[in-house]
Specification:
By secondary structure, the chain is α/β, with parallel strands linked by helices. It is built from 13 helices and 11 strands. The strands form 2 sheets. Strands 6-5-7-4-8-9-10-11 form an 8-stranded mixed sheet, with helices on both faces. A 3-stranded antiparallel sheet has the order 1-3-2. The radius of gyration is 38 Å and the shape is elongated.
Amino acid sequence: MNMQTFRAATMREAMNMVKAELGAEAVLLSTRELGSGRVEIVAASDPQPKTSVPDFSRIARNTSPTAVSPEILNSMLTELQEMRMEIKQLRSEKSVARRSRQDWDRMVDELRDLASVMGIHGAEDAQAAPIITRLVRGGVEACLARTLVEQASQNARTASDTLWGVKQSLEDALSPAPAIWDSSSRSVAALIGPTGVGKTTTLAKIAAQATFYHGKKVALVAADTYRIGGTEQVKTYAELLGIPWMVAENRNALAGALKRFERADLVLVDTSGHSPWQDSGLAYLDTLTSGLPVERHLCVMANTDGADVSRMVERYRSGGVKSLVVTKTDEARRMGSMLSSVWGTDLQIAHLTTGQNVPEDITVPNAQKLTQAVLG
């Protein structure tokens, strides 16, 4: 008997090797799976003539299990292993196809939801749909865009009338607040907001503008004692501008700073950044300014999602906000989130910042220009 061992990546390949080497009449002595997905077959051939392979179905009907030869059992096992591997592959392909179908259905549902929110159902919205799409592309939330267009179209006869009404609503909502340095009496302004929005740089711009261009006596208070280097940054700006400054690590220290700077026209307070979604950050502001005559001016980044801006403003408003400062407008691809920051509130935007240069990169917003920036 000629016995040989064959190894291959699949059972089918191993069987082909057996047939090519030993012929179709080869007898399978054993089969097993190796590591890395490979299989092994031990087969043998007999130089004596062999009868044809027995009929499995006949054996199953007429022969007891104990009468089946090892060769036949091995052959049956081989076929079963091949079938198992093919079934496993088919199941894998079916799973991939099912996931792809689920992803497709989810995308279709999201598009339908967006169309529903935007109110796009057919020809009756032919005038509204392009304006809604224009607003959404400008960064305005879909539901807010729909509300704007619905309000503007109530008394409109044409698409041009609707667009004119939308522009008027935008200009009204985006009308600016007075500049922080534009006050006839002494004021204390604390810049608040999440980490990384540029509060300290904005504070320096406001201080420089108020000092050099508006003749104000300005003082700085560094209350951001959490961030490494926060107080040093305020100190550097104060020395460059030639204005006094103090550190206030708590409410009592802040009260002392305000007492010391009681002759200043404008006192600017740099606060620590905290997550707007955690109550501890808002509690910090309440503790810091409790009972003190401090105005809060909320800084938000222009490239923040409109829905997030809206929720953020709502969180900070609970402690009182005088106005908004929209920072990093030069980094924003779309300006529509600014509308979400003021829509449905009595808040207005006091300043826009456009870069890192002090004091140049800060302006008082223009409602017409902001409207055009939103509409694109």
